[in-house]
Amino acid sequence: MFFNHRESVAIGLEYIKNLLSCRTPYGRALVRTLKPYKSKQAEELKQELDNISVVIDLLKTQPNDIASIENYFSQVRDIKRSIESCPDVVLDSVALFEIKRFLLLLQHIVASVERLNAHLIGLEIPSCIDALYLINPDKSEAASFHISDTFSLELSSIRRMKHEIEVKLHNANDEQEIEQLKIERQKIVEAECEEEYSIRKYLSEKLAAHKDDILQAISSIGRLDLIIQKAKLALLHKATKPEITTDEAVAFTAMQNPYYDSILREKKRCFIPVSIELLPGSTVITGANMGGKSMAIKTLALNAALAMSGFFVFAESAKLPMIEHICLIAQDYENITSGLSSFGGEILKLKHELKHIDAHSLMLFDEFAKGTNPEEGAQIVRALVKYLNTKKAFSVIATHYNGATIYAKKHYRVAGLKAFFEKGITGNSENGLELIADNMDYGLYEAPIDSDCPMEAKNISRLLLQGEEILAFILSETD
Amino acid sequence: MKISDTIKSSSVAIIGMSKNAGKTTVLNAIIKENQQKTLGITSIGRDGESIDLVTGTKKPEIYVSAGAIIATAKDLLNSCDITQEILDTTGILTPLGEVIIIRALSCGFVQIAGPSTVDGLQSVCEQILNLGAELVLIDGAINRKSFSVPTLCKEVILCSGASLDSSMHKVITETHYTAQLLTIKQLEQFKQEIAYQSDSKFVVFLDDNNTYETDSPVEYSGFISKSKHRKSIKAVCINGAITDTVVKPIIESGIRNIGIIGFDASKFLLSKSYFEKLCSLDCMLQPKHEMELIAITVNPYSASGASFDKHKFIDELAKLIKPMRVPIFDVQEGRYVF
Question: Of A275, A316, B11, B245, which residue has the fewest beta carbons closer than 10 angstroms?
Answer without folding.
Answer: B245
